[in-house]
Amino acid sequence: RFPESRVDGRPGVRVVRREDVLDTEFGRDDVWVATHWKTAHPIDVAVTAGVVPRHRVVYLVQDYEPGFSPWSTEYAVAASTYRAGFRMLVNSEPLRRYLADVEGLDVPSEHTFAPHLDLELLERVAAARGHEDVVRVLFYGRPSKHRNLFRLGVAALRVAVQELADDGIRVEFHSAGEQHGDVELDGGRGDVKLVSHGTMPWDDYFRFIASTNVVLSLQHSPHPSHPPFDGAVSGARVVTNEFRGTRAHLHPNLEAVPADARSLGLAVADAVRQAAANGPTGHVPLAAGVLGGPLETAVDALARALEAEESDR
Questions:
Q1: pLDDT digits over 86-95, tens only?
Q2: What integer pLDDT is reported at residue 191 of this predicted model?
Q3: Are 73 and 111 in contact (CB under 8 A)?
Q4: φ/ψ (deg, to 5) at 271
């Protein structure tokens, strides 16, 4: 898939197929970067075969990827890549703690980085929020991504609709993230629907979230996800699912509750009542280091560790 490119008359990019790795000679000073368990596993095979030096491999871990598969051979192989002895660069402090708890991995905090949030843009979104007569609820709805718990989120919204039925609050429900059919939330009467907006362009998304003062965003994995913090930092009240203690106390505007429809639905209803009574909270920045440090700092620290190990050999 690389475009054609040439340097000094020679191919600028050489693509080596996975099945050809063991028959290929590589530079001993190359640094290998695995970005997913399906790249980490063939690199591990190449290391075992003596083709690639183990100490020159960096593993970018962005979530607990065994959980993307049912318990199976894929699950077991994905988990085995965390025990391959590679240096790890971990996306988020909650994920680092989860890897320590579940896999017994001791990844230094300085090799952990926070998910990138456009904090200046979120401050502008906070300034654009208002206390309106209607409370709009945004659901991060991605039916094709099982870890985003779409059906559970819909069930939770139905609980919230029932809970708010006698409150007299005007509420709208909107979904963004992936296109799907509109969903009735009021037992088939058709008066209350979850309206799907699908995948939005970047600027449109941030303009839209300025009008939604309650967010329901679910992710059944230890990575904290971006949408909850887009909402929480910019002044919305956010409901998400707890996941083995990785989400509690990450942000004052973020309510992490058990992953069942009633708990989530009651939390959404409570957030709607707060938004109706008090409006948005205003800009609430993240506490320093709660999700990890800057990516550049983590990369620098890992590069220094690689250089130090190389000089000791």
A1: 999 999 999 9
A2: 87
A3: no
A4: -65, -40
Q: Calculate the average pLDDT of the chain.
A: 93
Convert the pLDDT of each residue in 13-66 to its tens digit: 777 887 888 888 888 889 999 999 999 999 999 999 999 999 999 999 999 999
Question: Which tokens belong to 276?
Answer: 């109706």
Q: Which two tokens stand for residue 262?
A: 């009633």
- Cα–Cα distance, 56 to 34 (Å, whole number): 11
* Interatomic CA distance for residues 237 and 23, integer angstroms: 55
pTM of the predicted model over 0.85: yes
What is the dihedral sign for C-alpha 249, 250, 252, 258? negative
Q: Which two tokens stand for residue 20?
A: 């050809």
- What residue has token string 């054609």? 4
Between CA 244 and CA 232 the distance in angstroms is: 21
